[in-house]
Each structure stands twice: as structure tokens, then as C-alpha cells.
Specification:
This protein is of the alpha+beta class and 403 residues long. The protein is built from 13 helices and 14 strands.
């Protein structure tokens, strides 16, 4: 129940209180109070003073006070306050996390210069999506990603790679590479030989195992682009047309290619195929007109028709000069380098290096590689939908370089 109000004249008599003088805002407030409680007040609009009894609205008691004490408290403008909440240690931590979360939620994006020197490790994310046939039926995802395997990390390196299988057994080939390549690298990197030699050996052993395995690799194989990172050095090893790029901010954003696509129309790659007795030609339609990309063929038959000059497996392609020899390049990570994207050709088919870089930049400022990778998949899918009825498998790894 609410407490009964006390006339102001009684308060003045008992406590010798002086009448209040109201400024203009207070006068307006009192007019609103009078209109609401007209039966309990006599207010003179001319001089803004109390002329008779005024009953203020009563409040529920917060403490066990007498009626007069409650009314005096209201009259003096000092209502009782709620007691402060006492948190335990765990509750204080939760409150602190909530405050930090709220601050980060409205944090303004920061420029790349402000991020320099604030990082001490890598953060990364991988996304993959199966392709589809022209009738939109989903196909088997033949891509495979290698993300920091423990047997390589245990010897002080970080390994990232994307394998893009092709042919009837392509998914078996890419997964075999995913299992075996890190194992051989982890073992070989313990030796004292140069890192490039060890990478070369690991690729050769992995390909030999594929040829000797139960997997039919006559017309099936896989490309592989890999990055071996130790401290501020990157060793890029590429076989085929998957790709890796590094993005640098130095008076503007720039792309640093970490690999070179091994395409049949590349002059250097084409010459290797011709020297091995193979052919490099486009397919032809019923009228003999060239269509599609340049492909690798045997000199005497329309096979295997590979759209790359280097690949794991592909025994028939090997007769036309296709090899699994990696192109190994060495790069230094500078203070202006901010992120890396490793992806299968499902990403690069219709998106340029600069377009992929532009997709990632907004999420770099938010330290969110998950969303960056997800949006690469989304944009690559849209690009395929605009240009083709079918869609290749799409896989990407986004790595934020933390200094």
C-alpha cells in the first residue's frame, strides 16, 4: 500500500520549512503536477508560490521510515537510493567481459598502420564448398585443405595447403596428399639439408606413393599449392593452378603473388610439354573451332586433356610431360604484409587477385578470418553462377599475419 500524503502547511509548522521559489522549468513541472493532482493543490500561476495545501504523490517505501520522514525526504529532493549490488569475483569477470564485448561491438575500424606491431601469432580460417553439375546436382568435393598439421608444427613450422583433385578418383588423390605430404615434411625437416631440398623430396615421395597405391591415377590427379612458414619466411611450393597471394599495405593495398599458375599456355610450361613430346591445344567444337582453355594432350590421341602442366598422379599425363615437380619460391614477411589467401582454382576462375583482396580487407580490420573466408566462398559462388551452369569446387584458407 502507498503511504498517505501530508499537507505542506503541517510540514512548514512542524519543521519550520520555508516556501520554495520555482524557476521557470520547475514552474512548468509544477503545472503538470497540478493538472494531475488538482484536488490536492492550490497553486497561484502569477507568482509561482504555494498558496494553500499541496499533497505530493506518495512513493512506495524503500526503508522503514515514518510517514513524516518519507515526506520530508521527498520534499527535500533526496529520495532513498537502491543499495549497490555486490558482485562476486566470477560475476565481476562476467561484467568486465560484457563491457569489453560492448566496446568491441562499436569499435571503429582501424587503418593498417595502426595494426603494425600489435600481433604475435597467426590466426586463420578455412572454408570449402562442393561444386555442382550443369543440372545443379551436387558433385563430390574433390578439394582438400591442409591447415597447420601437428607433425609439421612440432618441428617449428606452419604448413598451409590446398589440393584440388580432378578425374574420377580425384578426391582420393587430394586426400592422400593431405595425409602423406605433412607426414613426410615433418620427418624430412628434422634433417640438416636445405628446406627447399626437403620440400622437393616430400613432394616426390608423395607422388611416388600415389603411383604405387591402389588409387587409379591413370586419368586422376590433384594440384597442390603449399606454404611452409617459419618466423618471417615463407616457402611456397606449387604444383598446378591453385594459387596463393599475400596482401601488403604500402602506400595503398598491393598483391604479392606467392605462386605461379602452371597453365599450358604459359610459354615456359608449354615448352616443357613440347620437349616431352606432348601437345598443347584447345578443344574443338563440331565445326573445328577452338573452344575453352588450352590443354595438354598426348601427341597421338585426344587424352588426357589436362588444363594444367603439373599435377600429382595423372600417369597418362606424365607421358605428355606433366610432372609433380614443385616450383619452390622463398619470400620474406615484412611489416607491411597483413594477410594471405590460399585457394583452389574454383576461387580464381572468375575472381582476380585484387577482387579477392578487396573481399578480405573489411574483415581484417575486425580480426575475423572466419567471415573473410566465408565471403570469399560466397563471392566465388556468385561469380560462377554469373558465368556458368556448372560450378567447380571452391576452397580457401585465409591467414591473418599477426606481428
Amino acid at each position: 500500500m502507498y503511504q498517505q500524503s501530508v499537507p505542506i502547511t503541517r510540514l512548514q509548522r512542524d519543521y519550520r520549512l520555508k516556501p520554495l521559489e520555482f524557476s521557470s522549468p520547475q514552474k512548468e513541472n509544477m503545472q503538470r503536477i497540478v493538472s494531475r493532482y488538482h484536488e490536492s493543490a492550490d497553486y497561484n500561476n502569477n507568482n509561482g508560490k504555494y498558496q494553500a495545501n499541496l499533497s505530493l504523490p506518495a512513493l512506495p517505501p524503500l526503508k522503514k521510515l515514518s510517514k513524516i520522514e518519507q515526506t520530508v525526504s521527498i520534499y527535500k529532493g533526496k529520495p532513498a537510493r537502491l543499495p549497490s549490488i555486490q558482485f562476486t569475483a566470477s560475476e565481476q569477470q562476467l561484467q568486465r567481459k560484457k563491457q569489453i564485448s560492448e566496446v568491441e561491438g562499436i569499435r571503429k575500424s582501424i587503418t593498417p598502420e595502426k595494426r603494425l606491431g600489435k600481433r604475435n601469432s597467426l590466426i586463420f580460417s578455412m572454408r570449402t564448398k562442393a561444386g555442382c553439375q550443369p543440372n545443379k546436382a551436387t558433385k563430390i568435393n574433390q578439394d582438400a585443405a591442409i591447415v597447420c598439421p601437428k607433425n609439421v608444427e612440432s618441428v617449428g613450422y606452419k604448413l598451409f595447403a590446398v589440393c584440388d583433385g580432378h578425374g574420377l578418383k580425384g578426391h582420393f588423390v587430394s586426400n592422400q596428399i593431405k595425409q602423406q605430404l605433412p607426414k613426410h615434411l615433418g620427418r624430412l625437416l628434422k634433417d640438416s639439408e636445405t628446406i627447399k631440398n626437403q620440400i622437393q623430396k616430400a613432394f616426390t615421395i608423395t607422388n611416388r606413393e600415389l603411383w604405387n597405391s591402389e588409387i587409379d591415377t591413370n586419368l586422376s590427379g590433384s594440384t597442390t599449392v603449399s606454404l611452409l612458414i617459419i618466423k618471417d619466411l615463407i616457402y611456397s611450393a606449387n604444383v598446378g593452378d591453385s594459387r596463393a597471394i599475400m596482401c601488403r599495405f604500402d602506400d595503398g593495398w598491393k598483391v604479392v603473388p606467392l605462386s605461379r599458375d602452371h597453365k599450358p599456355d604459359d610459354p615456359e610450361e608449354k615448352q616443357k610439354i613440347l620437349d616431352a613430346g606432348g601437345r598443347v591445344e584447345q578443344q574443338k567444337d563440331l565445326h573445328g573451332n577452338p573452344i575453352g582453355p588450352f590443354r595438354v594432350w598426348l601427341s597421338y590421341i585426344q587424352a588426357p586433356g589436362l588444363a594444367m602442366t603439373r599435377s600429382f598422379g595423372d600417369k597418362v599425363g606424365a607421358q605428355a610431360g606433366v610432372t609433380a615437380e614443385p616450383e619452390i619460391l622463398k619470400y620474406s614477411i615484412t611489416g607491411q604484409d597483413h594477410f594471405i589467401v590460399v585457394a583452389s582454382d574454383g576461387v580464381w576462375e572468375y575472381l582476380s587477385n585484387e577482387e579477392v583482396m578487396s573481399i578480405v580487407i573489411p574483415f581484417l580490420e575486425k580480426d575475423n578470418p572466419d567471415q573473410a573466408a566465408e565471403h570469399i566462398i560466397i563471392e566465388a559462388t556468385r561469380a560462377w553462377n554469373r558465368n556458368s551452369l556448372a560450378r567447380d569446387d571452391i576452397t580457401c584458407i585465409v591467414i591473418f599475419l599477426q606481428k
